[in-house]
Amino acid sequence: MQYTIDEGQFRTLAAEIKQLKQDNKALIVAHFYQRPEIQDVADFVGDSLQLSQLAAKTDAEIIVFCGVHFMAESAAILSPEKLVLLPEEHAGCPMANMVDAESLRQRKAQLSGCQVVCYVNSSAAVKAESDICCTSSNAVQVVKSLLPGEILFVPDQNLGSYVEEKVGRNMYFWPGYCNTHDHLTRENILNVRRQHPNAEVIVHPECRKEVRQEADFIGSTAGLINYVQKSSVQEFIVGTESGILHQLHKVCCSKEFYLASEQLVCPNMKSTTLSKVRDALKNLTPHILVEKETRLRAKKALERMLACS
Ligand code: SF4
Predict the structure, then answer these.
(1) Using a 6 Å cutoff on CB, does residue 93 contact ligand 1?
(2) CA-to-CA distance for 214 and 202, rounded, in angstroms?
(3) Would you say 204 and 136 are in contact if contact means Cβ atoms under 8 Å apart?
(4) Of 46, 210, 253, 297, which one is least surrounded by beta carbons within 10 A?
(5) From the CB of 94, is ligand 1 less than 6 Å away?
(6) Its pTM surpasses 0.85
(7) 99/176 Cα distance (integer angstroms)
(8) What is the pLDDT of residues 114-140, one digit of tens each?
């Protein structure tokens, strides 16, 4: 995929970032949905689960998190002794913002005794109110690990319904969704499939059920990349955020990828730029902090998830 800046600008900024990174002993991590040039300066590119695990293990003192706010918060929860920087401080996640701690407490009071499974795309305060977290990679595994009894899944109802189908256990859902994935329709898939009849359809579980039903494979971003690498198929219609195309082209340069809709672009993920990464390393800000009591409660939910991944 093309960079969103020219080659000269990329080389200058990448060199500055490399030097600042060495001076600060920092680690740059980026989500698969970041701009291509951000992915190319990162030490590690991954999905939410991989990035949480890395944040828990790395001995770097500074983590520059190229993603959205809840991801940097997860790193700060798991590694409170490290300085976690989010280059674009307003990079939020609209789905994460669809649930807050107070509304979740009220719902828990209505469903007394239910176990709360919280998608990692949520604030630290919501994680603190939850029994266990999950990512799109391990959500099925996490729900299977729970004791009998009622389950409330927050905040993504699309991922929740996908897990419900896989596990065969009824759950209550929070009415949240990802603006980017929920936009994709069955009609979009059928249109692209008409143009590329030999292509397989691969989608993220944050997509609606009508879209998932058209898919040959459903998986997290890392799951989709693994699937494509192992497959003998040459063409794929991709139903997730456009940033994944950069990694797909890198790992499978001889295969063809068609985005299922031009709308599959998350403006929040794209709000981080190379100059913001450079500035974050220069000024050691914006710094993500999670207040201690919330952090300790949220950490339990994240650690329970990591233990069963
Ligand atoms: S792609 Fe969706 S879930 Fe991910 S940050 Fe953007 S809005 Fe949130």
Answers:
(1) yes
(2) 9
(3) yes
(4) 253
(5) yes
(6) yes
(7) 7
(8) 999 999 999 999 999 999 999 999 999
Q: Where residue 281 falls among pLDDT bands split at 50, 70, 90?
A: very high
**Ligand 1: centre distance to CA 79 (Å):** 23
CA dist., res. 37 & res. 25, Å (int) = 21
Q: Report CA(22)–ligand 1 centroid distance (Å).
A: 30
**Domains of the chain (ranges, CATH numbers):** 7-93+269-283 (3.40.50.10800), 96-177+292-307 (3.40.50.10800), 180-259 (3.40.50.10800)
The answer to whether 214 and 200 have CB atoms below 8 angstroms apart is no
The residue whose CB lies within 8 Å of the most ligand 1 atoms, and thus the one to mutate among 65, 220, 241, 272, is 241
Closest of 32, 24, 35 to residue 64, by C-alpha? 24
Q: Are 20 and 58 in contact (CB under 8 A)?
A: no
What the block records as the tokens of 76 is 């700060």
- For residue 51 the two structure tokens come to 């990035």
Residue partners of 15: CB distance under 8 A and separation at least 6: none
Nearest to 33 by CA among 180, 162, 163, 161: 180
Closest atom of ligand 1 relative to the 93 alpha carbon: 8
CA-CA distance, 208 to 113, in Å (whole number)?
A: 29
**Span from the CA of 241 to the centroid of ligand 1 (angstroms):** 8
